[in-house]
Write a structure and sequence with these properties.
Strand order of the largest sheet of chain A: 1-2-3
Number of strands of chain B: 17
Largest sheet of chain A: 3 strands, antiparallel
CATH superfamily of the largest domain in chain B: Type I PLP-dependent aspartate aminotransferase-like (Major domain)
Mean pLDDT of chain B: 95
Radius of gyration of chain B: 22 Å
Number of strands of chain A: 3
Strand order of the largest sheet of chain B: 4-10-9-8-7-5-6
Number of helices of chain A: 5
Helix content of chain A: 40-55%
Radius of gyration of chain A: 14 Å
CATH architecture of chain A: Alpha-Beta Complex
Strand content of chain B: 15-25%
Largest sheet of chain B: 7 strands, mixed
Number of domains of chain B: 2
CATH class of chain A: Alpha Beta
Shape of chain B: globular
Mean pLDDT of chain A: 91
CATH class of the largest domain in chain B: Alpha Beta
CATH architecture of the largest domain in chain B: 3-Layer(aba) Sandwich
Structural class of chain B: alpha/beta
Pfam families (chain B): Aminotran_5
Order of helices and strands of chain A: HHEEEHHH
Oligomer: heterodimer
Enzyme class (chain B): transferase
Low-confidence stretches of chain B: none
CATH topology of chain A: Sufe protein. Chain: A
Structural class of chain A: alpha+beta
Family (chain B): Belongs to the class-V pyridoxal-phosphate-dependent aminotransferase family. Csd subfamily.
EC number (chain B): 2.8.1.7
Shape of chain A: globular
Number of helices of chain B: 14
Strand content of chain A: 5-15%
Distance between the termini of chain A: 45 Å
Helix content of chain B: 25-40%
Keywords (chain B): Pyridoxal phosphate, Transferase
Number of domains of chain A: 1
């Protein structure tokens, strides 16, 4: 198999995409929805109004977007909610600045293979951009 | 022959007329990710034969000049080549006169031109425009915008689960309020070929003008606008082996004569003063500014190429190739072909288990196989068919049974990752 492809679809990424974590709707939460107009994929991200480290999502999306969303919800649950916005902004900017070496850390590192496929970068960043929409509305 | 061999789909033989066409397309010699290119994204854009590429070089090397305004030789030659291309298109479509061909940036602009210049002045609030659920966005959005401007109502012919037009209520949909009927000939997303002739005739009987969106038909099926009986027809150059940024609107001259200009300036004027302006006759009236001269000339070269191969040969071979591809794809576990129209041309759309079409597209790309994945600019149709996105393999005259086999092999590798 093509080495770039192997690097893209790492086991961790496939594990998250096949069984995404926190893949449900949170009622009465802060939420935002975003679409990737190129492919029609759509994701809604929810943040519990009280327990802010609780973030979930529902989506109709590809494996990279699903895995990224799954890992995002896990990562945000570990962080102090006051750090959520800056972490998400940093994640998105790391992907968009292709001159830089990606250093994502932890399971998120499994998304690094996406950088070799420029047409798929939006798939990885869409959940995070959607989460940032919630932060914008607050 | 044993039984399993007997049931294997048999690849079609490549006919004599198409035997050497691959050599005419230099891009087909390149590799992608170290693999030979298998280009199956022809519904999005076709590759260009050497004669079209040469025509671009020839124009800029020997003829480059503005048209319809210089008295010098270069301008005369460029004008001649531009107008000759118009004539080639008119002949290719069997238009009654060269002046019935208006150059546009593509099929999208052709539909917008018809909407703005022909339909809008005739519309009143409450009037209806009829399209179908099978349209791509270029034959939906211009009509929506027109309805927003005028208060007209957009009505839509539904499609069946097989992705055929559902004509059960056609007599109610084509009614006395209908002021225009615009319909797709071949669906870019599914490949359905619509039996448009009786529909166009039905509209004509009721005095309703019609536009045929032939963007996905003109490169696969011989077209005769007079025989089909459409009033307008739209297509893009880059989908028939020509350049991007050029296409055409065919319009019956009698109708073009009644139409207001589309854009103002440059070559569309007859006389300008600050008191008022008079406009040239069609088609110049609709070709404001300096047009895409080399685009038109190279589109003419593409039409020459297509004509030299022969649309009838192409249609027959492509239909055999699609039949072979359908049979081979059907053998893949979990693969579902979307829609089962009686007559299919150009494309096959499919899903494969839980594998997202974009993931399919990425894996296939690393195997050198280029397909399209997504909603194919047909969101309403895909929603109706209950799929958010599909993978689409679309074919052209240079595709071979080997390309189909490469697609199938790459899909089997995709299944290993995602199924």
């Amino acid at each position: 198999m093509n080495p770039d492809l192997q690097n893209l679809y790492k086991q961790t990424l496939l594990k998250h995409s096949k069984n995404p974590l926190n893949n449900y709707e949170i009622e009465h939460s802060h939420s935002a929805t975003k679409r990737n107009p190129l492919c029609g994929d759509e994701i809604t991200v929810y943040q519990d109004r009280d327990e802010q480290s609780r973030v979930a999502f529902t989506a109709q999306a590809c494996s990279i977007c699903l895995a990224s969303a799954s890992m995002m919800t896990e990562k945000l649950s570990e962080l102090d909610p006051t750090d959520h916005k800056s972490f998400a902004e940093d994640f998105v900017s790391k992907f968009k600045d292709r001159s830089k070496q990606l250093d994502l850390g932890g399971e998120l590192e499994s998304l690094s293979g996406v950088q070799a496929f420029p047409s798929r970068i939006r798939c990885a960043t869409l959940p995070w951009e959607t989460f940032l929409e919630i932060k914008k509305e607050e | 022959m044993n039984q399993s061999e007997a049931t294997q789909p048999q690849p079609p033989a490549i006919p004599e007329a198409l035997a050497s066409v691959r050599a005419d397309f230099p891009i087909l010699q390149r590799t992608v990710h170290g693999k030979p290119l298998v280009y199956l994204d022809n519904a999005a854009s076709t590759q260009k034969p050497q004669c079209v590429i040469d025509a671009i070089t020839r124009y800029y090397s020997a003829e480059n000049s503005n048209i319809h305004r210089g008295v010098h030789l270069l301008s005369t030659e460029a004008t001649g080549a531009y107008e000759a291309a118009r004539g080639k298109i008119a002949k290719f479509l069997n238009a009654a006169d060269d002046s019935e061909i208006v150059f546009t940036r593509g099929a999208t602009e052709a539909v917008n031109l018809a909407a703005y210049s022909f339909v809008e002045p005739k519309l009143q609030a409450g009037d209806e425009i009829l399209i179908s659920s099978m349209e791509h966005h270029a034959n939906i959005v211009p009509w929506q915008l027109l309805c927003e401007r005028t208060g007209a109502i957009l009505r839509v012919i539904p499609v069946t689960d097989d992705c055929e037009l559902d004509l059960e209520n056609i007599d109610e949909l084509l009614n006395e309020k209908t002021k225009f009927f615009s319909i797709v000939y071949v669906s870019n997303a599914i490949g359905t070929v619509n039996d448009v002739k009786p529909l166009l005739a039905k509209a004509k009987q009721r005095g309703i003008p019609t536009l045929l969106d032939a963007a996905q038909a003109i490169q696969h099926i011989p077209i005769d606008v007079q025989e089909l009986g459409c009033d307008f027809l739209a297509f893009s150059g880059h989908k028939i082996y020509g350049p991007t940024g050029i296409g055409a609107l065919y319009g019956r001259r009698e109708l073009l004569d009644t139409m207001r200009p589309y854009q103002g300036g440059g070559d569309m004027i007859s006389h300008v003063s600050f008191e008022g302006t008079t406009y040239k006759e069609p088609p110049s009236r609709f070709e404001a500014g300096t047009p895409h001269i080399e685009g038109a000339i190279c589109l003419g070269a593409a039409i020459d190429y297509l004509s030299s191969v022969g649309l009838q040969e192409i249609e027959k071979y492509e239909s055999e190739l699609i039949e072979y591809a359908e049979a081979k794809l059907s053998e893949i576990d979990g693969l579902k072909i979307i829609g089962s129209p009686k007559h299919r041309s150009g494309a096959i759309s499919f899903t494969m288990g839980d594998a997202h079409p974009h993931d399919i597209g990425t894996v296939l790309d690393t195997e050198g196989v280029a397909i399209r994945s997504g909603h194919h600019c047909c969101e309403p149709l895909l929603k109706r068919l209950g799929v958010p996105a599909t993978a689409r393999a679309s074919f052209s005259l240079y595709n071979t049974p080997d390309d189909v086999d490469a697609l199938v092999a790459a899909l089997k590798k995709t299944a290993l990752l995602f199924m």
